[in-house]
Every structure is written in structure tokens, then in C-alpha cells.
């Protein structure tokens, strides 16, 4: 099954993907992670992506689409996939549909995590990420047990390179600009569900699990 998680940055897509992975083994493919890995490897595509990533701009489709399809292809056949951060535009959604159709597959469900933008901004400005395992914390609302140290593996916590005020502002503006069309694209196909993300991660996860299980049963 292929599921897309939509929602503004800070709506908890990464946190929810990790919870679903632990509960039912679904594999997360996060465009941000894929791009960060490409940037870190200093590959030609990664170097091109970096100049957009660092300032909070969307990386051009011709870079993102190829990298993400490649990442999806690496997931073992028969594994449930949760896409996070991709597609971000209708052009990307169309390219994804075409690539999946070529592989005899399709998107089964799209879940939109709904969160007011002022709450998203607040969450992003306090976000801390473990440098080694990627676990996400928040200075104010979800602090680690020991400041600066990951509860899970003891790794150092840091702020993401693009979690500074100007980039946060820009990323959320871009999200606002693209989201309605993207949601409309999937809503018209009857595969969109909405979930209130302004609750505890555990409550949101229960809703996602219910949607996931219902879709699995009807697949
Ligand atoms: P995220 O971790 O999802 O907030 O993504 C971080 C950054 O990666 C974004 O600000 C963009 O620069 C880039 N990015 C992630 N996903 C996409 C995408 N689907 N299309 C274009 N750029 C993306």
C-alpha cells in the first residue's frame, strides 16, 4: 500500500511516520531526508539541491522527482510505503502517479495533517533533531529528558539548517501556495482523509492507524 502524508512543516509527519513504523512496520520515505542525504554525499544533484534547501525554497522538480522515485524503488516489494514531503506540487503528484503506474502500482490513500500555521511556526522554531537517529523533540512542548541529548540513543540534538525564522516563514508560505491544489488533486479522486494534528502525537497516531488499517482491509 502507498500512502501520502500531507501537512505543513511542523505538523508531525516525521513523528507520525516513526510511530507507524514502530507499530506496523510501514516504511517512511521522506523527501527532506532523501535531499539531506544527497546534499551530504555532495553528489552533483545534491550540490544543486543545497542552494535551494538552505534558504527554504522548493528544490526544482527535475531534481526532486528522480531522487524520490529512486528512493521509492529501493523499498522492498510488498512493503507499505508512507511518503512524507513528496509530492509537494501537482506536477510532482502527476510524475509520481506516472512512475507508480509504470510499476503497476498507485497511491491508495492521502492523509492531510491539519494544523494552524501559527502553531506550525511555533513548533518549528523550537524543533530539535537527533543528529544520529533523527528523532524529533521540541524545546518547549516535547523536551528531551537531558537537555541537548537524545532520549533514544544519547546522540547530540541540533537545530536543522533550515529551521531559522526567515526559512521557516518562506517554507510555510510555499506550503500555503501549493497545498490547496495538491489537496484538490487527491480529493477529487476520493482518496483524501483529514486528521486534526493539533493533538498529542499518540492521539494523532491512533487516527492514522485506524485509517491505515481500514485502507489495508479494503485493498
Ligand atoms: P522538509 O524536511 O520536508 O521540511 O524539507 C526540507 C526542504 O527540502 C524544503 O524546504 C525544500 O527545500 C526541500 N524539499 C523537500 N521536499 C521537497 C519536494 N517535494 N519538492 C521540492 N523541495 C523539497
Can you put this structure into words, describing what you see?
This protein has 219 residues and is an alpha/beta fold. 49% of the residues lie in helices and 15% in strands. The strands form two sheets. Strands 2-3-1-4-8 form a five-stranded parallel sheet, sandwiched between helices. Helix 2 crosses helix 4. The protein is globular. Bound molecules: adenosine monophosphate. Adenosine monophosphate is lined by residues 9, 31-32, 35, 52-53, 56-59, 64, 85-88, 92, 162, 171.
Percent helix: 40-55%
Distinct helical segment count: 8
Rounded mean pLDDT is 92
* Main structural class: alpha/beta
Q: What's the Cα radius of gyration?
A: 17 Å
Tell me the span between the first and last alpha carbons. Answer: 8 Å
Total strands: the figure is 8
Uncertain segments are: none
User: Which molecules other than protein and nucleic acid are bound?
Assistant: adenosine monophosphate
- Given the C-alpha coordinates, what overall shape results? globular
Largest sheet: 5 strands, parallel
N-to-C series of helices and strands: EHEHHHEHEHEEEHEH
**Which strand-content bin applies to the residues?**
15-25%
Amino acid at each position: 500500500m502507498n500512502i501520502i502524508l500531507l501537512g505543513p512543516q511542523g505538523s508531525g509527519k516525521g513523528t507520525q511516520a516513526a510511530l507507524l513504523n514502530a507499530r506496523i512496520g510501514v516504511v517512511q520515505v521522506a523527501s527532506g531526508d532523501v535531499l539531506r542525504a544527497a546534499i551530504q554525499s555532495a553528489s552533483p544533484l545534491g550540490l544543486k539541491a543545497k542552494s535551494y534547501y538552505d534558504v527554504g525554497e522548493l528544490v526544482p522538480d527535475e531534481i526532486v522527482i528522480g531522487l524520490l522515485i529512486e528512493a521509492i524503488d529501493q523499498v522492498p516489494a510488498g512493503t507499505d510505503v508512507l511518503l512524507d514531503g513528496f509530492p509537494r506540487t501537482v506536477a510532482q503528484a502527476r510524475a509520481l502517479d506516472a512512475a507508480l503506474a509504470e510499476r503497476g502500482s498507485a497511491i491508495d490513500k492521502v492523509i492531510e495533517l491539519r494544523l494552524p500555521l501559527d502553531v506550525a511556526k511555533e513548533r518549528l522554531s523550537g524543533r530539535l533533531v537527533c543528529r544520529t537517529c533523527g528523532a524529533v523533540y521540541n524545546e518547549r512542548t516535547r523536551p528531551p529528558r537531558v537537555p541537548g541529548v537524545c532520549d533514544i540513543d544519547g546522540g547530540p540534538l541540533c537545530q536543522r539548517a533550515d529551521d531559522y525564522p526567515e526559512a521557516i516563514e518562506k517554507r510555510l508560505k510555499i506550503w500555503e501556495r501549493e497545498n490547496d491544489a495538491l489537496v484538490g488533486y487527491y480529493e477529487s479522486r476520493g482518496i483524501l482523509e483529514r486528521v486534526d494534528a493539533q493533538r498529542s502525537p499518540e492521539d494523532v497516531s491512533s487516527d492514522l492507524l485506524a485509517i491505515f488499517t481500514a485502507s489495508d482491509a479494503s485493498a
